[in-house]
Amino acid sequence: MSVSSNHQDKDKSDLNKFGYAQELLRSMGGFSNFAISFSIISILTGAVSLYGHGLTYGGSGMMGFGWPIVAFFVMCVAAVMAELASAIPTAGALYHWAAILKNKRWGWYTAWINLIGQIGIVAGIDYSVALFADPLIASVFGYESNNTTVLICFTVILLSHGILNHIGIRIVSKLNDFSAWYHIAVVAVLVLSLAFFTKGSLNPVTYLFKVGETFSDKPYMFAFLIGLLQAQWTFTGYDASAHTIEETINPRVRAPWGIFTSVAYSFVIGFIMLAFVTLSIKDAGAAAGSSNAFIYVISEALGGTFGSVILWLVTAAMWFCGLASITSFSRMMYAFSRDNGMPLSSQWAQISKKYRTPAKAIWLAIILSFLLAFIDYIIKIVNPDATYTTIAFLTAVSVVGLYVAYGIPIYLKLRAKAEGRFQTKHLGPWNLGTYSTLISVIALLWIFFICIIMVIPPNQMAGYAVAGMLILLVIMDLAYYKNHFPGPQAALNKSMEEILRREKELE
């Protein structure tokens, strides 16, 4: 028997002890698992689409200081999540962790809050693609890009991602592998182009760390905090490595490394890219005041034709990011529906017999993401004087939803450790050892801090949206799910102690 077959048999047995059959195709290697999170983080999506937001509020210093500050704390969050993924390797991930560490109701709320964040991240990513693609297409075909044409472009992009995810995990897995290398290659092309072909000279390195300059009406320190959305939204979605854990070979080791290294590599490569883009700025005020600061900076630095080629390459990278995000979103929805946590769960938990993908969950993810952007489009028609931007709204919703969902199992793990219900023997092979508690506390404090920053003006619309969704969740819970949600199989009558005992029985 091959090493791969031995691993797959062990992985199947490992999943069985949590109460689940191996339904999804387990074919992803370590690089593929890393690639899906790296592609969703996509420094060529978050850092680029919100470059104007960061520059407007924090000036050039946002790139020199804001990016590393956020990256440090996010790596703490990622490390604790990686530890949990190694201990509890199921596709339900966050909400399975919460249910096992506390109870099914904590798991239910975690799942729905995660879904809110997933809707926001898919909508935000594909809307970012549309914001870049539509003006580029408009320049070719001679029409004027506006909110309506961007929405149409957004819809077409969503449909392309839905079709490919429906067809099969093998195709998407290969595209995600390619996406990781493509991101690195495009960043290299962008950096080298700016280093050697920028019109005029680059700014001195000290410009990257210039503080005190803001192009907003807010005091600089407050504006700087608002500008952190640029980096914070970029570092989202790395839980994808956990959501695809049932499709990964040797998941207790490979998925945790996928979570952590996707953040670490994105930090380093992203910082290099942002440094050269920022050092090539000719007029920061003009860039901040333009409709798309990144496009403005690249066009000014590299010229029309060359700049357009680079922008097309960046847009393609964003498209790959959206493709991976649909994969993650649909797997989470499939896992939650498998546990009867959603209306019409039996539909969303179905696996396509031909493609072995959660086809209906994939298309539900597409529809929900479209609706979030469409509702915002209608609001803008009714209130054309709204000062917030669609992309800031979508990204802030995703940051708050995802990071609250990240924080719940981290908090519950600390409580379980304090009560003696989660001990060293419950950890998987990937763990933080004696530093686990300290890093968990740092991660929780950062999540609390950043979630507040993301919903204060000018992002208050995101706060209203998240609050409205949370009120709806409470109504759903009290009206039905409090008494009818059975809880995930991973947590039904299974404490961590019982799971360990069953593992020994299956060995």
From TrEMBL:
It comes from the Bacteria. The chain crosses the membrane at residues 34-53, 65-85, 106-129, 149-168, 180-200, 220-238, 259-281, 293-326, 361-379, 391-412, 432-456, 462-481. Its main location: membrane. It is a multi-pass membrane protein. Keywords: Membrane, Transmembrane, Transmembrane helix, Transport. It is found in: Membrane. PANTHER family: AMINO-ACID PERMEASE BAT1 (PTHR45649), OS04G0435100 PROTEIN (PTHR45649:SF26). This is Amino acid permease. It comes from Paenibacillus planticolens.
